[in-house]
Give the backbone structure.
Amino acid sequence: MKKFIAMLTLLVGFNATAGLLTIDLSADEVSVGDSVLVTISASEFEESFDFGFNFNFDDSGMIYQESSLTSGLALSIDTPMFDGLEVVTEDFGLNLTFLSDDDSIFAAGNFVLASFYLIADATGSFDFSITDLYDDWTWVDHTVDFSGASSVNVSAGSTSVPEPSSAALLLLAGFAFASSRRKKQ
């Protein structure tokens, strides 16, 4: 009986694969106006034609740069039937959905799910999370992991000191020259 239970445990353990979503932020300290590259990678994904999740962040301080979106998957705007990854800006951050009716367009294995820039627009600390992850095709649980910081601190940046104007420097040089001539006489 012990051998049967051990064999059953091994069999179930090797067949229970769960995909892993890894979130990587290019920086955890930036100044207002700087960009943060967000890369969401998927690994050990079973073949899926329908999944989605919410990428949560405070959009009052971080702005999604739509033109920066890249993915290892087909983007819905690039396919004739809009099969592929779609990213929609919401009040909570971004909603990422992958949907395909085309058997040749699917998500599987290891790939960059999405990579995009967020621009820091206000000072503060901004946290990131993934919620409402679903996979209607395989019904497999996926794990979410941060490979670095899960938040970004945005500072006001350095205050620039204006350089003295050229006219003021010339005027100062003129006074120095005049005073040196007066001392010689």
In short: The first helix runs from residue 2 to 15. The chain has one domain: 19-158.
